């Protein structure tokens, strides 16, 4: 593995905005190789923007993102894609595209356009499909699959980039509970088997509390809380970050926090203090 291709991420003084709207206002965050981190917060707080900056798809207005010792903004888009894989929240449908062809798209950064034309599946694609259990669907059209099946195929495409860092933007959105758990358990397993660093945006605080090593909560473009789920997932987090009154218990079998939201809170009852 080349220098700088390790799975360590450091975000230093990161600021980003669109015309008339600041999105991230000075983010400092360190993610160690092999960690599984969940980003939580209300819509518009900057979670997806932070992922896109960490994937090299956006350039910061200030601050920097480091992958190992390399500053991401100094890398080309293709070089960044050889270091970091991002599974977007949604992807356009391509009628008639098979599972095999979609997964193969993940090899573009490594093989380039000519390599994509000259070669079919390689060992990396084969392993990616096998790791998420979609090999038997290789010649089926993607648009004939269920939502949960398509998400597994898209995860295989991200794995085909063969990176040490995997960023997932709401990987369980639009899935039923069974397929949500299937995707989450697959990500946890792959993280262990491949030694991946995983950062995922999650709306379900219950999934974050159960599956992540760390929960990082964003509010108004800043880190409002950061730590292990047992320390961070509290009634204060529910109130000040997610805007709901509620209670937090413990799962009797696994010990992870379990949230019991009661009702939404008026905006005026929340404050801007760092929770933890």
Structure notes:
Keywords: ATP-binding, Cell membrane, Ion transport, Iron, Iron transport, Membrane, Nucleotide-binding, Transport. This is ABC transporter ATP-binding protein. It is found in: Cell membrane. Pfam families: ABC_tran. This protein is an alpha/beta fold and 276 residues long. The protein has 2 domains: 177 residues, P-loop containing nucleotide triphosphate hydrolases (Rossmann fold); 71 residues, no CATH class. Helix content is 32%, strand content 27%. The chain has 10 helices and 12 strands. The longest helix is centred in the C-terminal third of the chain and has 18 residues. The N terminus is likely disordered.
Mean pLDDT: 90
The first-level CATH class name of the largest domain: Alpha Beta
Backbone CA Rg: 19 Å
Q: Architecture of the largest domain, CATH level 2? A: 3-Layer(aba) Sandwich
Query: How would you classify the helix and strand content by structural class?
Result: alpha/beta
Low-confidence parts: 1-5
Helix content: 25-40%
How many strand elements? 12
Strand content: 25-35%
Question: Strand count, sense and closure of the main sheet?
Answer: 6 strands, mixed
State the distance separating the first and last CA atoms: 36 Å
What is the domain total for the residues?
2
Topology:
Layout lengths: L8 E10 L2 E11 L4 E5 L6 H8 L7 E6 L2 E2 L5 H5 L2 E4 L11 H6 L3 H11 L4 H9 L15 H13 L5 E5 L7 H18 L2 E5 L3 H7 L2 E6 L2 E6 L1 H4 L2 H6 L3 E7 L6 E8 L12
Parallel strand pairs: 3-8, 3-9, 6-7, 7-8
Antiparallel strand pairs: 1-2, 1-4, 4-5, 9-10, 11-12
Helix pairs in contact: 5-6, 6-7
